[in-house]
Amino acid sequence: METEQALDADDPLAVETVLVPVDGSDSSVRAVDYAAAVADRYDATVHAVYVLGEEMVRAIETDSIDEAEAANKAQSFIRDVADQVAEYDVSMTNSTAYGFSTTSKMTHPGSVVLDTADDVDADFIVVPREPLSGEPGEILSKAAEYVLLYASQPVLSV
After folding, report:
1. Which pTM value belongs to this model?
2. What does the alpha-carbon distance between residue 24 and residue 57 come to, in Å, rounded to a whole number?
3. Which helix or strand (DSSP H or E) is residue 80 part of?
4. pLDDT tens per residue, range 51-97
5. Separation in Å, CA 112 to CA 60, 82, 87, 101, 133
6. Is residue 150 part of a domain?
7. Is the residue at 3 inside a domain?
8. What CATH number does the domain containing 31 carry?
9. Which domain holds residue 149?
10. Which stretches does DSSP call E strand in 15-105?
11. Cα 100 to chain center, whole Å?
């Protein structure tokens, strides 16, 4: 049985899109470097999804913060991520997602990462994984184990 594109024997992994969830934390900045390096190695693109944490989602839903203000904060970080990825001469797309819901128990950071992976047809996921320090922006550390357990794609946890 022949495939349309034969894989190099030294490189059995084909990667077109690398997903990296970010949340504004230092660990997500480090994960972007790994995602860009993987994308560079496989001539792939990076998709960065900014995952809004529970505190931010609750603030938006209670009008404690304007949704446009939250979007501006996320886009500011995404611009920094785009600059970081550009250093590897890799293209990047991005999106933003609510990592929590006050109305659905099924919405949490891990499920959001996996849903985004399906939506963008990601072949590889790089997820930040740091010991929790109590910093409010580090919501992805909580999602790493879920992604490692349930992703159908290869996952690099950094």
Report:
1. 0.82
2. 15
3. helix 67-86
4. 887 677 666 666 677 777 777 888 899 999 999 999 999 999 999 88
5. 18, 21, 27, 11, 22
6. yes
7. no
8. 3.40.50.620
9. 17-157
10. 17-22, 45-52, 92-98
11. 15
As for how many domains the chain has, the answer is 1
Q: How many CA atoms lie within 13 A of 96 on its CB side?
A: 17
Q: How many CA atoms lie within 13 A of 3 on its CB side?
A: 6
The answer to whether position 100 is within a domain reads yes
**Amino acid identity, position 38:** V
Cross-strand pairs, 50: 22, 96
Calculate the CA dihedral of residues 52, 55, 57, 58 and round it to 10 degrees: 180
Please state, as a whole number, how many other Cβ atoms lie within 10 Å of the Cβ of residue 110.
23
Tell me the two tokens of residue 110: 């891990």
Count H helices and E strands in the chain, helices first. 5, 5
CA distance 84 to 37: 11
Q: What is the pLDDT of residue 132?
A: 44
pLDDT digits 0-9 by tens, 100-141: 766 666 677 888 999 999 999 999 999 987 654 445 445 566
7 domain-assigned = no
Token pair 């910093």 is found at 135
